[in-house]
Amino acid sequence: MGQTIISAIGVYISTSIDYLIILIILFAQLSQNKQKWHIYAGQYLGTGLLIGVSLVAAYIVNFVPEAWMVGLLGLIPIYLGIRFAIVGEGKEEEEIIERLEQSKANQLFWTVTLLTIASGGDNLGIYIPYFASLDWSQTLVALLVFAIGIIIFCELSRVLSSIPLIFETIEKYERIIVPLVFISLGLYIMYESGTIETFLNFIL
After folding, report:
1. 151 lies in which domain range?
2. Structural domains in the chain (count)
3. Any transmembrane segments, and where (predicted)?
4. pLDDT per residue over 4-55, tens digit each?
5. Which of 63, 75, 103, 164 is the most exposed place for a label (fewest CB within 10 A)?
């Protein structure tokens, strides 16, 4: 269980760093503290929809006859990690931030929900192979970690929104942290599914 918790924390943090930046911007724009619950709810709904799609896809993938074939999905986060290291987020994050700055308070909930989904499209490439590598009990543990992670990230963002230096530091090192975690996750999935062992046996 400890290994599952650690891997779930790594997955959530690595896929949510861009959310952290967006949330900091959102909290910095709030005129009323009570509006923060719109952000919380939007994050939960948006993330929940992404995870729901991932769980369905992971369930289908589990019908693959050989476990090591499922491990090939680990190549997806490895690819995403390498791409992120080379080209970064690109223009998509800039467009998301521009939309955040234009959003109105009464549309905050749906704005956060839609932007969570829009900015989390690549997360499916991480979530699907990750959940496919877990059994049902490990999946429940991972979902609990994600649920707690959303609360922590929202509160952390609210606090950091008043500290510009922190925001700049996170943005600066995002391009190092995210690829490192993504690639490690991909290798972990391939190892757990026996894919690496299968390849080594085939080569040797």
Report:
1. 1-203
2. 1
3. 6-28, 40-61, 67-87, 108-128, 140-161, 173-191
4. 899 899 888 888 876 777 777 677 766 556 677 888 888 899 889 989 989 9
5. 63
